[in-house]
Amino acid sequence: MSSTLKLAIEGMHCGACVRRVTAALQNVPGVQVEKVEVGSAQVVFNPAEANAEQVTSALERIGFTGRIEK
User: Fold this and answer.
1) 53 φ, ψ to 5°?
2) Topology of the domain comprising 3-69
3) What is the pLDDT of residues 18-27, one digit of tens each?
4) Could you tell me the residue ranges of all domains in the chain?
5) How many CB atoms lie within 10 A of CB 46?
6) pTM of the entire structure?
7) What are all long-range contacts of 23-31, with beta carbons under 8 Å and residues at least 24 apart?
8) Which of 8, 27, 40, 60 is most buried per CB count within 10 Å?
């Protein structure tokens, strides 16, 4: 079973940011990136392999702040 996670991402402002965020999210095991735009992202993840904290931590490692949207 998979879960969808919508994120608001602070600090993004251009296409290069979109590429960096996409690459960081793709590197999290169990995460499939559905969409990344300036300021937001949507991913699907397998809870057996990843969790929301791992996803937001991947963003923090590259200098962005991710907040989970309900």
Assistant:
1) -65, -40
2) Alpha-Beta Plaits (3.30.70)
3) 999 999 999 9
4) 3-69
5) 14
6) 0.93
7) 24/58, 24/59, 24/61, 24/62, 25/55, 25/58, 25/59, 27/58, 28/54, 28/55, 28/58, 31/55
8) 40
